[in-house]
Amino acid sequence: MKKQNLLYIIGIIVLNLFSCENVFSQKISRGPDIGEIYFLGLSKSGLNATIYRSTDFGETIECMDSITQNTYWIESIEADKTSGVLYFVSAYGGLHYSNNFGKSGSWVFRQNDISWNICSGLVEGQIYNTYHSHSNNYGINFMTHLANGFFGGLKYCEIDNLQDIGYVIVNKWGVSDSIYFLKTTDNFDNLILDTVLNFGYSDNIILSRALEEGELFMFNSSNEPSNLLYSSDFAQNWIETNNFNFEIFYHFDMVGGRQEGEVYLMYEIVNMMWQNAHTYIFHSTDYGVTFEVFHPFA
Given 3-state DSSP classes, what are the helix, strand and coil percentages for the chain, each rounded to the nearest 5? Predict the structure, then answer.
């Protein structure tokens, strides 16, 4: 597919939005193989959380499971480094595990009290319950982190491609024009204030590691225009690689890929009282400067 600037694609979409989804969720995850992604798609009724898998960067998809929201309202999905292993977290903090690519009937309950913000895919069997704790056995047991130095309210947590390095973005009550970027070098036992960013207290921030050690993508969908940032030096410096006029959307998510410069964006729109629901996957291999745009449901 020909690469196009994302602004021109989104600019032609005019829609009415009747509801806005909770921003505290993770709807797309990289798989262990190049081109493999998992994501939560929209059903026309809005009553099912449908898990899809793609092995060609989002151009085509396979439905793995369609879970009734009355049973589990899925907040987040995350793929393990192990092929076929997928996790989801329900709205009530229940961690579930599949060793068969998330297919129906393969889910096993693991733990309660798990955050929506989970991190995995670096080491086989390893999954992080935000900065609180982590498991090395596919979520069976978790080891608690001390988290000395943490303050404020959590906005996003991510691990680095270098083991024991991690990042936490927080806001602080009473400070409306800044968010705080914390860093750990000892697996979240200690956190230090690294950077103060000029973003709003309630801005929707997404953070994802890229391919190499110290590489990160950050997206702020609350800015006007929204902006995609990239860092190659453990978040010391950021450059803007693109910005977008997302005037109205139902949900937006982002994840780094398995190749140099690779990043995925997931864009969902809903109108006509759920009769018109669309999921778009954007794929870039030049750090988000240009994108291939896939609408796999078309």
Answer: 0, 45, 55
In the block, residue with structure tokens 């192990």: 82
Q: pTM of the predicted model, to two decimals?
A: 0.88
Calculate ∠ Cα 151-155-156, nearest 5°: 105
pLDDT (0 to 100) of residue 73: 79
Give the separation between CA 143 and CA 132, rounded to whole angstroms.
Answer: 9
HEC sequence for 133-159:
EEECCCCCCCEECCCECCCCEEEEEEE
Q: Is the pLDDT of residue 20 over 60?
A: no
Compute the distance between CA of residue 286 and CA of residue 292 in angstroms, rounded to an integer. 11
Q: Which two tokens stand for residue 285?
A: 């291999």
**Contact in structure between 172 and 155 (CB atoms under 8 Å):** no
| Spacing of C-alpha 277 from chain mean position | 20
> 223 pLDDT band (50/70/90 cuts)?
confident
Q: Is 6 helix (H, G, I), strand (E, B) or coil?
A: helix
Q: And the tokens for 243?
A: 């910005």
Which amino acid is residue 204, in one-letter code? N
Choose among 32, 71, 78: nearest CA to 51: 78
β-bridge partners, 35: none
249: alpha, beta or left? (left if phi > 0; alpha if psi -120 to 50):
beta
The tokens for 278 are 């669309």
Q: Where are the alpha helices (DSSP H) in 135-269?
A: none
**Cα separation, 179 vs 176, whole angstroms:** 8
Ranking 109-118, 237-246, 251-260, 273-282 by mean pLDDT, the lowest is: 273-282
For residue 143, give Cα distances in angstroms to 90, 92, 110, 191. Answer: 21, 21, 14, 17
| Domains of the chain and CATH, by start | 6-10+24-289 (2.120.10.10)
